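Working notes for the structural subgroup meeting. M.R. asked for a predicted model of this chain before we commit to crystallization trials. I am recording the input and output together here so anyone reviewing the notebook later can reproduce the run.

Input as submitted:
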Amino acid sequence: MASERPNIHKLSQDIIRLIAAGEVIERPASVVKELIENSLDAGACQIEVKIENGGMASITVRDDGFGIPADKVPLLLERHTTSKIENETDLDAIITLGFRGEALYSIAAVSDVIISTRFRDEEAGTRLTCRNSEKSIETISWPGGTQVESLKLFHSTPARRKFLRSEGAEFGRVAQLISSYALAYPGVAWRLIHNGRETFRTPGTGNLDDALVTIYGADTARKMLAVDYERGPVRISGSISSVEVHRARRTDQIIFLNGRLIKDPGITSALERPYMQFLPAGRRPLAVLKIECDPSQVDVNVHPHKREVRLAEPRVVTGTVYHAVTETLQRNHPLHGSPDQKLEDTLEDAVSIDDRTGEVFPSAPPATSAPQSKSTSAQADERDWAIREPKHSHTSDLPQSTDKIQAVAVKNGLPHEYPSFDEIVLEDDLPPTGHTVQFADTYLIYNQGRAVYLIDQHNLHERILFEEFMNREEKAGVASQSLLFPLQVKLPPSQSGLVVDHLDELNSLGFEIEEFSGGGSFVIRGIPLALKSDDPVQAFSDIIERASQDEEIRQDGGFRKAFVINLSCKSAIKAGQKLSEEEIEYLIKHIRDGTYYTCPHGRPTIIRLDEDWFRNSFKRSRKY
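Returned structure, recorded in token form:
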């Protein structure tokens, strides 16, 4: 069969516009980011952001910056038009947040745009309207500054809309973004309004502590530690959390480089490494770090959304971050080490830094040194969370069997593959619990017939609780326990809107909670009975934090399912917890049902090692 003749042709300008816009504008938060960065470049002291329906209906950003001259307004929606770059030399040391001239052009390609502005030296304002690519300009009365409205986002590209999450989830992204900038720019008064309701407002005093109180509440703000450190060409300022405050995710690690919000694994590892011995495994510090260095040493034009940068000398920057965090903890934590100890003399002994990426790792012990103790060597393995971000999505349908699950253990460099199986068939009579061994206070080991079964106690209990919570929910709700004294919890704006939208569901899931005075504050009057041994405020904050980042939260029933999954995880028996015979028996009786062969996240709860596996591992033939 002859192949079709390829038709190579030049794309139309409309298609080119949409492709270019797709590289810059992914979702409502992308629009907001570009617009507020323009406002900051314009010297704004007040920035107000209004969004409707999570930003999908409208986004309005207004500032009191110096405005745009009337004769330059017609150029605003043209591609690659900017006031921030004049020649090639300017690209070598970019000091503004915007510079490519693609922001307004890209926004206009995927939405209707209305720009109202007045340059501070002019008497009248100018309004530029672009609807369906048709532009019009008029002279208006305008108090000053600039307002940009983006209407009906992605109305011309409906396929893009289906990739957006729910209204609440998209609003959460916007709120997280504005919160980050409010903390990095405390001298600007920020205001965020969603569907006509004010979410938060910062005073704009220039004091970071005031902004921290607005975003995280007074209790958390009191436990933040000021950072002010300079080493060579790099200066670090901002605030990091004490060891009392930590999160399950990195969403509250806010890093700005020369005023630009970035994500960088090397800087993240330098921030987290000093906390290793003080935080529980899987927990991360909060931070607002502002890094200043020579702009000529930073390439900001390596990512369409300008989230990532390339450093000429990453080792210098990450090393300074590590020093800054370590010194701050030493000053404020008596067990962290002597504040008189010179960090410059001990850095190379404590950690090693990758010259290419800047990532910070524990230094390998000298070859002639004595072997590390078990606790020390295990600690490095268990704390790899300091440089790796765990996955926080799961399949939409919880797996009901482990027919495709294969686990691999590595012993002395030799891989051993556990056999896969379609279904675990147990004999009628389970062995008595007295024959079950708890290993490392984390796993249960017992044999039955010609096989040995390994059980992860946390994974199994997590699945048991998930099924119980979901069944109770369908009947009479999750059992709740009232608190003797109501407790107040303050959530960041990115999560508080989610709670407000789902208060009824939360109350049916065992929490007695109500909004208190707005601004992300809530009162907890009751908690699920399964959480009675936990700190209610910390437990609720952790569950909401994890649920808010679940990729399926935009689906019908997604919030309820995500919340129950994380409630089950928080309530379940922990790894390292010693179990009684009664508790072991309770767990084992549930493995009869194939429903419990995976936890709600899809991890296996039970692994079967048959006689063939042992024979192969010990290099035995079939003859005894």
